[in-house]
Design brief:
Blueprint (H helix, E strand, L loop, with lengths): L1 E6 L2 E4 L4 E9 L6 E7 L6 E6 L6 E3 L7 E6 L4 E6 L8 E8 L5 H4 L7 E2 L3 E6 L1
Parallel strand pairs: 2-11
Antiparallel strand pairs: 1-3, 3-8, 4-5, 4-9, 5-6, 7-8, 9-10, 9-11
């Protein structure tokens, strides 16, 4: 009932930047929690960042804090992940996820708590 599509992935050199976008459609009912997750090669999916309604609450994994910024534009039904100072360790498939509830801090860091997912977009950081 809710569709998400990621865009903006690509290949960049270490130290570069990328901006990912996640467009949503369907019965989002203005949504509440949007999360970004990533899955590095050979590893499990991990939490990156999350944002609640109106941008009043943002949360980041320690590994990206200070480098990545999550935001959302409700008028455009789009969430963003601005990634700066990229490192080879950031190489992964990045997914956006959506849930209608206001997830508590521990819950928003776990992908199992999100009901809807995009297809993912590849981010490759070369050294």
């Amino acid at each position: 009932q809710v569709q998400l599509v990621e865009s903006g992935g690509g290949v960049v050199q270490a130290g570069g930047s990328l901006r990912l976008a996640c467009t949503t459609s369907g019965r989002t009912n203005n949504g509440y929690t949007v999360g970004w997750f990533r899955q590095p090669p050979g590893k499990d999916r991990e939490f990156v960042a999350a944002i609640r309604c109106c941008g009043s609450s943002t949360h980041y994994a320690d590994s990206v804090k200070g480098r990545f910024t999550i935001s959302r534009d409700n008028a455009k039904s789009t969430a963003y992940l601005q990634m700066n100072s990229l490192e080879p360790e950031d190489t992964a498939v990045y997914y956006c996820a959506f849930d209608r509830s206001r997830l508590i801090l521990s819950a928003l860091r776990s992908g199992q708590n999100y009901d809807y997912w995009g297809q993912g977009t590849q981010v490759t950081v070369s050294s």
